[in-house]
Design goal:
By secondary structure, the chain is an alpha+beta fold. The chain folds into two domains: about 5-100, no CATH class; about 125-260, no CATH class. Helices cover about 60% and strands about 15% of the residues. The protein contains twelve helices and five strands.
């Protein structure tokens, strides 16, 4: 690295951290301290505005949120070309290093999970689009006439799990809860699964494509109906899709025609 390149790197790091000392020492003739200060004010102001907007959900849990943002900006140089971790994620990680209340930790976890889902959708775009196509068809098929054994279950691949401290209205205490964050179209949705949904999800993740067949072989009629109802709930939520087996095309076509005729 040449001396000039080193100077550019030093100036960028200094301005990114909100400091101007080294830059002032290297000012060209005709430039003034006020020019540098004005540039820094505009740059930091825009950086601050964008960060506050992007982490506004987490900010709801902090009374001194704007002061925390200012502290972060003063301590953390801007990384313009870093693609693996954007500024909002870095800020949330920085917040994690502080002593947080359970509520504050929940809000941070919630927003971290949303960003993790967006990143997963970006890096697994083909899997995301494939699932969305299957899910769109599955919403048509999700009626009382289908047999789950005719279909292969497909869990939404753009999914992140988090455990949150949830205030439970039924009791005056906090109870932990598993929450799924997943992509539906261009949105990130959440599912707070019931115990029955959690059991089916665990089976789907363990058995994969054979989950419905295994449930059908081992369960009573009543149990199979409960599995079907739970699967339909997960389909409606956007967490699960159905991929027709080789024996199901005719039934799928009939279901679509019935839907169009309604």
């Amino acid at each position: 690295m040449s001396a000039y390149e080193r100077s550019l790197a030093d100036w960028s790091e200094e301005l990114g951290a909100g400091r101007i000392g080294q830059v002032l020492e290297s000012l060209a003739a005709g430039s003034s301290r006020r020019d540098v200060e004005r540039f820094l004010e505009n740059s930091l102001g825009e950086r601050r505005r964008m960060l506050v907007e992007e982490v506004d959900l987490a900010g709801l849990a902090f009374e001194n949120f704007e002061q925390l943002v200012d502290d972060y900006l003063a301590m953390t140089p801007r990384r313009t070309f870093q693609l693996d971790e954007r500024e909002p994620q870095r800020f949330l990680r920085w917040l994690r290093q502080r002593s947080l209340t359970p509520q504050q930790a929940d809000f941070v976890s919630y927003q971290e999970s949303e960003y993790a889902c967006y990143e997963l959708a970006r890096t697994n775009r083909q899997a995301h689009l494939t699932f969305q196509r299957l899910w769109t068809r599955s919403r048509v098929l999700a009626n009382e006439t289908i047999e789950l054994s005719d279909y292969t279950p497909v869990v939404n691949p753009i999914c992140v799990w988090s455990r949150l401290e949830v205030a439970t209205l039924a009791v005056s205490a906090a109870s932990r809860g598993d929450v799924a964050f997943f992509a539906v179209g261009s949105q990130i949705l959440t599912l707070w699964p019931t115990e029955r949904q959690l059991q089916l999800i665990a089976s789907l993740l363990e058995l994969g494509a054979t989950a419905f067949a295994a449930c059908g072989a081992a369960a009573s009629d009543l149990e199979r109906q409960a599995v079907k109802e739970t699967a339909l709930e997960l389909i409606a939520a956007g967490f699960l899709a159905l991929n027709p087996s080789s024996e199901a095309p005719r039934k799928e076509g009939e279901a679509r025609m019935k839907h169009l005729g309604q």
